[in-house]
């Protein structure tokens, strides 16, 4: 049986009680490159625009990186750019994402985004946001509801 030296115990105590240093920008960049997070395209109806920050937080808290058209393009860049240009940009983001997460009721535009994701073999997850700001609840594709058009 090996004897435990006092210096070994001191080494352990030193590691426990030494304040952790904040990682440098280089350390953070290296960690990101070695352990990339999933890119999640956030699909949601224009009617849920006001929940965009809560949805962003939910995706980040889930350990993924959100790609949210409403955060990138506001509401079609306040209608200063043709919708077709913004839609093309959004479709490119879907193609580059790892997954598509659908929040709230499904509008026609979201339905098309889901179709693009499925044709590209992207996983699609659905979430009920009717309890926001308190909760976001995962649901199945079968229980996801379509938006009623006026």
Task: Note the topology.
Blueprint: H1 6-17, H2 25-34, E1 39-44, H3 52-61, E2 65-67, H4 69-72, H5 76-79, H6 83-96, E3 99-103, H7 108-119, E4 124-128, E5 137-139
Parallel strand pairs: 1-2, 1-3, 3-4
Antiparallel strand pairs: 4-5
Quick take:
By secondary structure, this protein is an alpha/beta fold. Helix content is 44%, strand content 15%. It has a domain at 37-139: Rossmann fold (3-Layer(aba) Sandwich).
Task: Describe the protein's architecture and organization.
The structure is a single chain. The chain has 150 residues and is α/β, with parallel strands linked by helices. The protein has a domain at 37-139: TPP-binding domain (Rossmann fold), CATH 3.40.50.1220. 44% of the residues lie in helices and 15% in strands. The protein has seven helices and five strands; from the N terminus they run H-H-E-H-E-H-H-H-E-H-E-E. The protein has a five-stranded mixed beta sheet, with helices on both faces. The model has no long low-confidence stretch (mean pLDDT 90).
Give structural attributes.
single chain, 150 residues, alpha/beta, Rossmann fold, five-stranded mixed β-sheet, 15% strand
Approximately how much beta-strand content do the residues carry?
A: 5-15%
* Shape summary: elongated
Oligomer state of the chains in this structure: single chain
Strand order of the largest sheet: 2-1-3-4-5
CATH architecture of one domain: 3-Layer(aba) Sandwich
Classified by CATH, the class of one domain is: Alpha Beta
Say which CATH homologous superfamily of one domain is assigned: TPP-binding domain
Number of strands: 5
Helix-strand string: HHEHEHHHEHEE
Any idea of the CATH topology of one domain?
Rossmann fold
What structural class results from the helix and strand content?
Answer: alpha/beta
Largest sheet: 5 strands, mixed
Return residue spans where pLDDT drops below 50 for at least 5 consecutive residues: none
Distance between the termini: 80 Å
Mean pLDDT: 90
Rg, nearest Å: 22 Å
Number of helices: 7
The helix content is 40-55%
């Amino acid at each position: 049986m090996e004897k435990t030296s006092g210096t070994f115990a001191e080494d352990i105590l030193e590691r426990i009680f030494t304040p952790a240093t904040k990682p440098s920008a280089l350390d953070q960049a290296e960690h990101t490159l070695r352990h990339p997070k999933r890119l999640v395209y956030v699909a949601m109806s224009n009617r849920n625009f006001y929940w965009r920050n809560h949805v962003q937080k939910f995706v980040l808290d889930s350990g993924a990186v959100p790609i949210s058209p409403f955060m990138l393009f506001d509401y079609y860049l306040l209608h200063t750019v043709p919708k077709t240009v913004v839609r093309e940009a959004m479709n490119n983001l879907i193609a580059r994402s790892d997954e598509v997460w659908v929040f709230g009721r499904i509008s026609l535009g979201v339905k098309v985004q889901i179709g693009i994701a499925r044709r590209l073999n992207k996983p699609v997850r659905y979430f009920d946001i009717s309890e926001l700001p308190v909760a976001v609840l995962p649901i199945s594709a079968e229980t996801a509801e379509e938006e009623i058009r006026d």
